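Re: your question about Multiple sugar transport system substrate-binding protein

S., sorry for the slow reply, the queue was backed up all week. Below is exactly what I fed in.
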Amino acid sequence: MKTKQVLAASLALLLTGAIAACSGDDSGGGGGQDKPTNCTNTIPKPDAPVVTLWAWYPNTQLVVDNFNKAHDDVQVCWTNAGAGGDEYDKFQTAITAGKGAPDVVMLEADRIATFQIQKALVDLTDKGYQDVKANFSEGAWKDLSVGSGVYGAPIDGGPMGMIYRKDVFDKYKITPPTTWAEYETAAQKVKDAGGPLFGDFPANQPAYVTALLYQNGAQPFTYDPANKGEISIKLNDDASKKVLDYWAGLVKKGLVGKQDQFTPEYIAGVIGGKYGTYLSAAWAPGYLQGAGVGKGADAKVWATAPLPQWDPANPVSVNWGGSAFSVTSQAKDPALAAKVAFGVYADDASLKDGWENQIIFPLNLKVLKDPAFIDAKVGFFDGQQANKEVYVPAANAYKGMTYTPIGQYFYTAFTKQIAAINDGSKTGSEAADALQEDVVKYATEQGLTVK
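Result:
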């Protein structure tokens, strides 16, 4: 069995692939820069020590300015190194090169384990975590933990619900389904009456489908780096097969679509009334509005409801998306970098701007308990109090997920199997079996011991 150090090295080589040939980019990086000069923002207190930050949210400029104005002992130099994958590619290159990474990097929760196994992130448990632990839920912290270590400061999350078209539900006399059985019944009723597809099962969104597996009690991965490279992989258990067989059935019956999401074709379908529901997260209104949804003929037709359940007597809340600030192992002063990670996007003004403009769904409990946030009337939902009715209860009930250090490969493999379900070449159970075999083989090849 490989040691953790060799395992990390082998995974790093694998993950970089084509990226490794790229030259490192020191823009905005940490690694010993005392006074970076290439900041996107203006640093108002140049005599203070500087912590470099990569982040991509639209209001990061405001957030960084708020932090810098409030602190005399540290200033933030912000660079937008790209959103999501673009930033991750640059970060991976910096990890491989051993230089060029920032002190603090914005990461989605499901990417943390991948970078942690490469020793690219700093454990924050003794760097201010205890001081802010009570500000967030158990589920929020679990998403950012790998084993006993905490490798990120929560920013936002994606508690899931069911967005739906009120005009479609009114026309076909449907009330929001509370169970997946009711969801299928409603979908069949709409189809039989000549109505639109009831939803969509996208192959290009495996993280979303993974959340649905968790909702039925599946535990796809168990991983703790303290266990010397051991990992549990359960992708074809009964809970997972039940979910995939359910969606395979909806696809086969023509009740839901098979369109990749976050594409112009999908958005055109949403605007054009092609789908009765959109199963998504609390950040969805901001995304949809930015894509042009709800601004024309489909304005004021949208509402949201809790995600349907398998067992309404034992409801399970799940999450899709969400980001954190992580301290990188190249940070010159990890303790000071941790202060920034925990402090940026934590002040009242920044949090309020985030949720009022539907940029983020904050996970900070002082927001989740704030009547102004709870009772807010959301314009996209025609004034519905969506936080009170759907998203705050879902966020409060969420227990967290265990992510895997081979997450990117898992998502790629899962995309392939969802596509096989959608083209009719595999049942849900067959896809689950194939996924299990594929991911176990890959994990073993990377030096992990599958339990």
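The chain has a mean pLDDT of 91. The CA atoms of residues 176 and 305 lie 7 Å apart.

Happy to talk it through on Thursday.
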